Amino acid sequence: MGDPHVPAAEEQPGLAVTDSQHSSAPASPKVAPFDEAALLQRMFWSVPETAFLMRVGLRTVWRLMADPKSKFPKPRRVRGRTLLGATEVLRFMAEGA
Q1: Using CA of residue 18, residue 23, residue 28, residue 30, what is the dihedral sign?
Q2: What is the pTM of this model?
Q3: Helices (H), the chain
Q4: Domains defined along the chain, listed by start
Q5: I need a labelling partner for 54 at 20 to 30 A (CA). Which of 36, 65, 78, 91 fits?
């Protein structure tokens, strides 16, 4: 245990180096992009926020908005942003369940 340049397995007799890879990292180091509790307090959600709360992809939300048969809530355009009413989206999710 004295030499820092020699791996511990080589210093101690009887221990064999079986794996040259480092230990595995945690499953996902990413943090959730949005705070769900804070979003539920807001009246309108952006498309990424809606996708996060619905647990679907962005493309799925855009497809639902484009399909009139889906009965997805109508988006609102505010200064170039596409926003969806929170209560309408929650109602849509409850009906689909």
Answers
A1: negative
A2: 0.66
A3: 8-11, 36-41, 47-54, 58-66, 86-96
A4: 33-96 (1.10.1660)
A5: 78
